[in-house]
Amino acid sequence: MTLSKEIRDKYQAIIGLEVHAQMLTASKAYSNDKNEYGSKPNTNVSVITLGHPGTLPKMNRKTIDYAIKMGIACRCDISEFQHFARKNYFYPDLPKGYQITQDTTPICSGGSVLIKDDEGKEKEIGLTRIHMEEDAGKSIHDIDPFNTLIDLNRAGVPLIEIVSEPDIRTSTEAYNYLSEIRKLVRYLDICDGNMEEGSLRCDANVSVMLKDAGEFGVKVEVKNMNSIRNVQRAIEHEIERQILAIEKGEKIYQETRNFNALTGETVAMRTKEAAMDYRYFPEPDLQPIKVTQEHIQRITADMPPLPNELFKKYVNELGLSEYDAGILTDQKHIALYFEDIIAHTDNYKAAANWLMGDVKSYLNEKAIDIREFPITAQRIAELIVLIDSGKVSNNLASQKLFPVMLLEDASPLSLAEKNDWIQDSNEDSIKGLIEEVFAENPDEFERFKAGEKKLMGFLMGQLMKKSKGKADPKSASKLINEMVES
Ligand code: ADP
Ligand code: MG
Hints:
The protein is an alpha+beta fold. It has helices at about 5-10, 60-75, 170-185, 230-245, 295-300, 305-315, 320-330, 330-340, 350-365, 375-390, 395-405, 410-420, 425-440, 440-450, 455-465, 475-485, and strands spanning about 10-20, 75-80, 80, 85-90, 100, 110, 110-115, 120-135, 140, 150, 160-165, 200-210, 220-225, 255-260, 265-270, 280, 290.
């Protein structure tokens, strides 16, 4: 049975996401062990990580600061007093037999993330909470055919878990929400946002209901998606699966399902009946945490500009299109470079065009980050000023000056002078050249004069060749027209 649009349209999906982000701290959440991805297996494991009897955890302050940063960025309430809790369960890659997490006193509550809905309109997704916890180790099933291997380097790596309200309505909104979260943690420098390596992970809670039903349907939790696109695919599949089941008269059970990226389907993993009772209790080995208002203010003062604020500034104050603003704010260091250009010129549109055009093409071609780009933002601003002053054309700047600037850190004006590229806008000298062009191409001249306007390109080409690209194209085309008419 496939799902018709008609049936699909009777239902509304409800989605809430739980996102785990590994914090980019130097050491682990409760020990001095290195927090490092890709180390030799089981090398970042002291007796604390291994949970040996008699060892004591110690709180990493950085984790608290990072969680607060995220809370400020999402306008959450930051709790002034909190404690940790033990979540008890047995799993081979959890050496202590419990996870230190926060249960009743999460560090952040409330707040929201601004996203775009399916129509591109702004929408607020509420946050339930953000709490701190630790990661488990990694069980590896696909190296040894007979055994599961365990790497405990990840055990104890600090995480924040960001829990959304069930405010998401479509798989596209879920995609946009996750993209926004990833952008935020990267702007804040608290997580590298890499879903393939598992430093950002997402569990999707999905339910469906008839559109006029008064209450939400039973939710199913889907795990194991390693990209934002796969989260979208998993949700899309899950919505259809649930609708089809309900249409067949089946009941939806609260369960956890695994997403299979190869088939695009979700498969049942465990039901709620088999769900564990974690026996949460306050963690006796860690002191409660006090976060003062002064501390929150210090972190607030240190916050980088946020993508949403920059986006609004670019659209509302600089007059850029939403499309341009979206590209410019997508990556923090691109945005910071743009900020740097516009500190030196108010031709915002030209700044955006250069950054999204020639600069980005170069970055893509060389597969490098903007931080490795050889031309400073100030030089790009100087280039824009030079073009605006009429001394070089956009074309010459892009084709000749820009490549030279990549090799030599000098002002674009001095480079243009040195290479004899300063544009000629002296009418007399351009006129002289135009006369030569007419004399050398009498046939084209006559046809152009008779009204064959498309020959303008040819005549301009000849003129540019003669002037070695230096004739100011605007005055040149004006002069050609005038001289033909006279
Ligand atoms: P649990 O106690 O089962 O963990 P929570 O109430 O803590 O459930 O919610 C976990 C996640 O599920 C949250 O992100 C929340 O927004 C989402 N959620 C809750 N109810 C629903 C529902 N009916 N449909 C979809 N998502 C839901
Ligand atoms: Mg929960």
